[in-house]
Hints:
Residues 37-87 form the HTH lysR-type domain. InterPro entries: LysR_HTH_N (IPR000847), Molybdate_resp_trans_reg (IPR051815), WH-like_DNA-bd_sf (IPR036388), WH_DNA-bd_sf (IPR036390). Pfam families: HTH_1. This is LysR family transcriptional regulator. It comes from Xiamenia xianingshaonis. A two-stranded antiparallel ribbon has the order 1-2. The protein is mainly alpha-helical. It has helices spanning 28-40, 43-49, 54-68, 85-111; strands at 73-75, 81-83. The protein is built from 4 helices and 2 strands, in the order αααββα.
Amino acid sequence: MDALEHLKPVVHVAFANPDADSRSMFSRGIAELCRGVRDLGSLNASAKNMHMAYSKAWRIIKSTEDALGMQLLVRDGAHGSTLTPEGLRLLELHDAIEEKLRTEANAMFEGTER
């Protein structure tokens, strides 16, 4: 039995501002929150969908926005939230890059001699 046959590569993409004091970055968790806002129309619904408290989701988004120096969400009080054009573009880039790297990593891994 090949010792590697039960393994798969895992790829994580993150965007960070190297000049920020914070280590917060746009990564998989933030992408999932943003995807929920895009699909469900509010940060609260997105947080609930992830089994996360709204207050925690709010802190994570705010910390990431501060670190990146850009607004990710437009909040409309009781009417929910939407992604800013920059937030939507960052989410799209995150997902596209992660998918491309995942495909390449799988191909490289499967191509290794075992």
